[in-house]
């Protein structure tokens, strides 16, 4: 379960009476997808990056975030056990697919290195992408990249997932396919998932919107 309480986002130096985004309380249950929609510039992506634990010097953010009743608010990014899929990117361009997979596993996996490699290659083959093991990200198609980026994220064994417009860079022919595959993977792992999107076709589960007072409410 991923939960937030009294989260408020301000631009640094802005009027304290004019927050970008306010979330009084929000809980995402295990296996649930919650979609957050709203206009550009209200802090939706900033919220995800704050949850992940990224430093955000241009913003002042207060509030609490918990994962399975463990307070993450002051923990560094490496201890939060949150995964994230971005609108673009997610793989290190200077590393092969194999090296990206191994890097993802290395942080948390207790398995021997060879076993990690075999696990990653087995899952890559299950996607029909075993021939991309030694490929570099720049040689992948959009659909291949998106699948492998999610695979790497899952290999890091996150306990919750954050999705920031993850399908918007795909063309129409691939978007539905990759979207369906992604949500199937997350559902099978019973992972609480918070999705930010502008596209209603991408929305899943409970849909929240940002109202005129910059507060997150049920759609």
UniProtKB/TrEMBL annotation:
Protein name, per record: ABC transporter ATP-binding protein
Any one GO molecular-function label of the UniProt entry: ATP hydrolysis activity
Pfam families on file: ABC_tran (PF00005)
Transmembrane segments: none
Annotated PROSITE patterns: ABC_TRANSPORTER_2
Keywords assigned: ATP-binding, Nucleotide-binding, Transport
Domain of life: Bacteria
Keyword Kinase found: no
SUPFAM superfamilies with a match to the protein in the record: P-loop containing nucleoside triphosphate hydrolases
Location of the ABC transporter domain: 2-219
């Amino acid at each position: 379960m991923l939960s937030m309480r009294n989260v408020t986002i301000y631009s640094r130096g802005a009027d304290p009476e004019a927050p970008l985004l306010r979330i009084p309380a929000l809980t995402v249950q295990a296996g649930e997808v919650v979609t957050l929609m709203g206009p550009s510039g209200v802090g939706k992506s900033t919220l995800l990056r704050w949850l992940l634990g990224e430093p955000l010097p241009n913003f002042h953010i207060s509030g609490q975030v918990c994962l399975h009743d463990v307070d993450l608010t002051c923990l560094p990014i490496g201890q939060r056990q949150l995964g994230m899929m971005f609108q673009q990117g997610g793989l290190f361009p200077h590393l092969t697919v194999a090296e990206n997979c191994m890097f993802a596993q290395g942080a948390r996996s207790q398995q021997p290195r060879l076993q990690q490699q075999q696990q990653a290659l087995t899952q890559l083959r299950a996607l029909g992408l075993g021939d991309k093991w030694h490929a570099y990200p720049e040689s992948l198609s959009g659909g291949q990249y998106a699948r492998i980026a999610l695979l790497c994220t899952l290999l890091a064994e996150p306990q919750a997932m954050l999705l920031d417009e993850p399908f918007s860079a795909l063309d129409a022919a691939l978007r539905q396919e990759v979207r369906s595959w992604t949500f199937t993977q997350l559902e099978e792992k019973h992972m609480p998932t918070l999705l930010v999107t502008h596209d209603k076709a991408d929305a899943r589960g409970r849909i929240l919107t940002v109202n005129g007072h910059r507060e997150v409410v049920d759609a």
